């Protein structure tokens, strides 16, 4: 828990320092400032992205013909029996 609070405090302090960081107008020392140099670094792509050459392929697709099922009605022969007759009322 202490480590988590320390990390949160570090992020808050770092963000506040970056937001409040300024230089005097005539000062040319911004090129030596590590915070300014880090903030203005641009990602350099070292290798060009790979270009994929896509070739369209055309082929004949045969539709699957499903055989028709017979239209019979199946009955369930294992039906449940009626409730037993209460012997006291019979």
How would you describe this protein?
The two termini are 76 Å apart. With 90 residues, the chain is mainly α. The chain has helices at residues 2-20, 34-39. 28% of the residues lie in helices and 0% in strands. It is built from two helices and no strands. The model has no long low-confidence stretch (mean pLDDT 78).
Summary keywords:
mainly alpha, single chain, 28% helix, elongated, 90 residues
Tell the overall outline. Answer: elongated
Task: List how many beta strands DSSP finds.
Answer: 0
Most strands sheet = none
- Helix and strand run: HH
Structural class: mainly alpha
Task: Report the radius of gyration as a whole number of Å.
Answer: 40 Å
Contiguous low-pLDDT stretches (5 residues minimum) are: none
Distance between the termini: 76 Å
What is the residue-averaged pLDDT? 78
Count helical runs: 2
Give the structure's gist in a few sentences.
With 90 residues, this protein is mainly alpha-helical.
Topology readout:
Layout: H1 2-20, H2 34-39
């Amino acid at each position: 828990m202490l480590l988590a609070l320390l990390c949160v405090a570090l992020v808050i302090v770092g963000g506040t320092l970056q937001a409040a960081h300024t230089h005097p107008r005539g000062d040319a020392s911004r090129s030596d400032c590590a915070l300014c140099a880090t903030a203005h670094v641009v990602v350099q792509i070292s290798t060009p992205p790979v270009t994929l050459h896509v070739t369209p392929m055309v082929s004949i697709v045969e539709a699957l013909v499903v055989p028709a099922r017979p239209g019979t009605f199946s009955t369930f022969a294992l039906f449940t029996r009626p409730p037993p007759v209460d012997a006291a009322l019979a």
